[in-house]
Amino acid sequence: MFSKTFGYALRAITYVAIHGNDGKKVSLLDLSQYLDIPYYFLGKIMQEMVRHGILDSIKGPSGGFFTNGSTLDTSLIQILKITDGNLVFSQCALGIKRCNTEHPCPLHNDFAACRNGMLQALSSKKIRTLVDEIRAGEIYLAR
């Protein structure tokens, strides 16, 4: 349902939120290797996250990515909008251009319920929640 770009961004931001704070920085190489994400593709994703203010970065041999004041309070929907736009919440499940409530496709009503549930979940869940759940051993980020 979501792109690899969104999944990679979410995993990388969460990893940085766990390991890139209190003056610590996470290198792109470490992120790429630990999360098993292609290095150059991840680099482009991370540049976008920095550009949108979700993370900060410093270039150079001792540089890397680290959290800022807004990282932990970033909702997952914000990340999805950066990576995928709003299309997943506005397109027809079957790709029918004229699908709407007045002229629904065969899956319109079922997909609308799913879409609204995902929209609510992604809007209410924040990076902070993922970090807390990972630290508690309730969810896992990799491997």
How would you explain this protein's 3D organization?
The protein is mainly α and 143 residues long. It has one domain: Arc Repressor Mutant, subunit A, CATH 1.10.10. 50% of the residues lie in helices and 4% in strands. It has helices at 4-19, 28-35, 39-51, 76-84, 108-124, 127-135, and strands at residues 56-58, 64-66. It has a two-stranded antiparallel ribbon. A hairpin with a 5-residue loop joins strand 1 (56-58) and strand 2 (64-66). Helix 1 packs across helix 3 and helix 1 crosses helix 6. The longest helix has 17 residues, at 108-124. The protein is elongated, with a radius of gyration of 17 Å. The mean pLDDT is 92.
- Rough outline: elongated
Q: What is the H/E order?
A: HHHEEHHH
CATH topology name: Arc Repressor Mutant, subunit A
CATH superfamily: Winged helix-like DNA-binding domain superfamily/Winged helix DNA-binding domain
Structural class: mainly alpha
Keywords:
143 residues; mainly alpha; Arc Repressor Mutant, subunit A; two-stranded antiparallel sheet; 6 helices; 2 strands; 4% strand; elongated
Write the layout of secondary structure elements.
Elements: H1 4-19, H2 28-35, H3 39-51, E1 56-58, E2 64-66, H4 76-84, H5 108-124, H6 127-135
Task: Briefly say what this structure is.
The chain is built from six helices and two strands. It is mainly alpha-helical and 143 residues long.
